[in-house]
Specification:
The structure holds 2 protein chains of 2 kinds. Chain A is mostly helical. Chain A has 4 helices and no strands. Chain B is mainly alpha-helical. The chains are: A mainly alpha, B mainly alpha.
Chain lengths: 74, 177
């Protein structure tokens, strides 16, 4: 691709998608939303913890003999 | 708070919520502005700013105070924005009612602008983000590389590939750049 093509496409892009102004700010104070998100996410156990617990439950249900082995490693 | 930036960062690193709020108040506009440059959707940019600061708080123990907050936050924000770009369909983003630039070339018709926007939206997100920041927002390659966590050479390669794909798409639509 020639440099001239590059410049032309760049100009077309800037015409289609004008650069964002420097002085932009959110329409609302986002701090309460950050606090809410921190509260929500810290309360819920991570998905991999739940998956691990489900896996262990399944293992003990289908193979009860594995219970002493698991207890040994806990 | 009246403390030096480094002591705020040290306190934040130890998980001090007051230090986190200070950093949030000092940097939310910059982070929001950076994200808006990438996603070009004010509502999504606000949500992603919240997401970014949530990720920042979760990663507080990994900050290196000597390297400053802004670059680190920008990198996390860039990845949050990239995740968003990957989840939305091209037609859901880049709203068509974006204002025309002041002094826009009259020869570039609304149809060409529309087709260019569509073609740009069809680029893979990793190429689009590099092209957006470099070609449209005219950010230095070095800064874009740091934000994306890749080398300057990789940024240039992504921009080159984005331009080639764009050219191909525009030609297919009957526009010869």
């Amino acid at each position: 691709m020639k440099p001239h093509d590059e410049d032309r496409i760049k100009r077309m892009l800037q015409e289609a998608l004008p650069p964002i102004e420097d002085q932009v700010e959110p329409t609302r104070d986002l701090w309460p939303a950050v606090l809410r998100k921190l509260d929500q996410k810290s309360g819920a156990p991570p998905w991999f913890d739940l998956a691990l617990a489900a896996g262990l439950l399944g293992l003990t249900a289908f193979f009860p003999a594995s219970i002493p082995v698991l207890l040994y490693y806990l | 708070m009246g403390s030096s930036p480094n002591s705020v960062l040290d306190e934040f690193r130890q998980g001090n919520p007051a230090a986190f709020e200070t950093l949030f108040r000092d940097h939310q506009r910059t982070v929001y502005g950076w994200i808006l440059r990438i996603v070009r959707n004010p509502a999504a940019a606000e949500d992603l700013t919240v997401e970014t600061f949530w990720r920042i708080y979760r990663a507080h123990a990994r900050i290196e105070p000597s390297r400053g907050f802004e670059g680190w936050a920008r990198r996390i924000a860039t990845h949050a924005a990239l995740d968003w770009l990957r989840t939305v369909r091209p037609e859901d983003e880049l709203p068509a009612d974006l204002p025309s630039p002041i002094g826009a070339d009259a020869a570039v018709s609304a149809e060409i602008r529309w087709k260019t926007t569509k073609a740009f939206g069809r680029l893979p997100p990793s190429l689009r983000i590099a092209a957006l920041l470099t070609l449209i927002e005219e950010q230095p390659h070095k800064e874009v590389a740091a934000a994306l966590g890749i080398s300057v050479a990789a940024v240039k390669l992504r921009v080159y590939r984005a331009l080639r794909l764009l050219r191909k798409d525009l030609v297919r639509q009957g526009i010869t750049p």
